[in-house]
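Project standup — Tuesday

K.O.: blocked on the structure for the chain from last sprint. Re-posting the sequence here as requested.
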Amino acid sequence: MNIISWNVNGLRAVAGKGLHEIVRGLNPDVMGFQEIKCTVDQAKEVLDGLGYHVVAHEADKKGYSGTAIISKIKPISVSYGMGVEEHEGEGRVITAEFQDLYVVTTYVPNSKGDLSRIPQRARWDRDLAAYLQGLDAKKPVVLCGDLNVAHQPIDLSHPQPNYNRTPGYTQSEIDGLQLLLDSGFVDSWREQNPGVVKYSWWSMRSGGRAKNIGWRLDYHLVSRRLMDRVASTEIHNEVYGSDHCPVSLQLA
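H.V.: unblocked you, prediction finished:
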């Protein structure tokens, strides 16, 4: 099973940058999209013609946030959100159930430039950990998405000046991801690539991609008992179209 995750920073925008060709080239069995910035109907229109089942979750605010999942096999069931009222309304979580696992795609809230959203983000992290543990009690889980945090210094170009100053690299956010790992999940790419420096997001304003000044914000976290099925993981720096690149997980 080939599971891809991509923050497209606007599904309709990337549609004009070869989206269908990119998806066909990646050949996912399941693919999660984050920050689609469109309605469910618009997402289905953009993704029509690929031959996949399509589900999407839109934000109440137009042109903001949102997620989608496409799959070759129709999911057994699909649910939206985590069941926590505080986190509803932004279209940030979709869970697709398949025969032997759940695939959850998420676009984790950014803590904002002034870090004012840190308390809400901390509650999100705790609630997401609890939600995933509930799923994991039934079937193994693959969480894919933009988790909006660099977990370790190796996961961003300039850790020291950003630590506790920049959203995505505060101790609170790091602790939030660590909570997921302590809850029985594994950062599959880092597990397979210890010591490797590779990023999945670059600032468009500073020309960071050309200089490879970036952050690793996009992950596949898997239930620990799934790790023996992880055949390969990859960060697809060669794929353009967004300020993020796709990341992939191959399960045997």
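K.O.: great, moving the ticket to review. The chain is about 25% helix and 25% strand. The longest helix spans residues 118-136.
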